[in-house]
């Protein structure tokens, strides 16, 4: 009898221990699931939050660029675009401003797909490029080598822009678009980016989308 009771008690103890182990295991599983869900929620929230931050920053940057592009460029000179001739000519043209910002011009445009010329280019071809919406960066002998290099790098990366020396211009560094022109102090002048943002294929362009390749190349 005693042996049967001991055997029964031992079996009950084992069942109790097994049940307790299973309860502990289920409890661990619940904790692990809760932890996993919580961590997943934190990760998702972080990703969503970061994405929202990036989108907000990009939106803010875009708004700033738009605001800068719409604001007047300090010190900019403007000419009435409607009064600038647009005829194709084969003769030399005496432009009233240097570098010219518009007027009659050659039938062939100067390549302006980020083209950097180290020698003077024909004005009549460059003006045609402006008609297509290009920004023309020019410099004279007073310009610092570092500024010439920096502006050349910017032009090289910017479709619808070109750069060349103009020895007899008044300013060391000048930027021109159709009917628009500004003299800047250096390549770091914030008006450089503003002028590019505003006038590369800008609203002043008489022929937006016209080619800047397959024209004249020095």
Q: What can you see in these coordinates?
A:
This protein is of the alpha/beta class. The chain folds into 2 domains: 70 residues; 123 residues, 3-Layer(aba) Sandwich (Glutaredoxin), CATH 3.40.30. It is built from 4 helices and 6 strands; from the N terminus they run H-E-E-H-E-H-E-E-E-H. The protein has a 6-stranded mixed β-sheet. A hairpin with a 2-residue loop joins strand 5 and strand 6. Helix 1 crosses helix 4. The chain is rod-shaped. The chain starts with a helix and ends in a 19-residue tail after the last helix. The model has no long low-confidence stretch (mean pLDDT 86).
SSE inventory with pairings:
Layout: H1 2-70, E1 77-78, E2 113-116, H2 123-131, E3 135-139, H3 145-156, E4 161-165, E5 173-177, E6 180-184, H4 190-199
Parallel strand pairs: 2-4, 3-4
Antiparallel strand pairs: 1-6, 3-5, 5-6
Helix pairs in contact: 1-4
Biased composition (Polar residues): 1-10
Keywords: Membrane, Transmembrane, Transmembrane helix
Protein name: DUF3105 domain-containing protein
Examine the secondary-structure arrangement and name the CATH architecture of the largest domain.
Answer: 3-Layer(aba) Sandwich
Q: What is the mean predicted local confidence, pLDDT?
A: 86
Q: Quickly give the structural class.
A: alpha/beta
Q: What's the CATH class label of the largest domain?
A: Alpha Beta
* C-alpha end-to-end distance: 116 Å
* Rg value: 35 Å
Which characteristics define this entry?
single chain, 218 residues, alpha/beta, six-stranded mixed beta sheet, 4 helices, 46% helix, rod-shaped, membrane, transmembrane, DUF3105 domain-containing protein
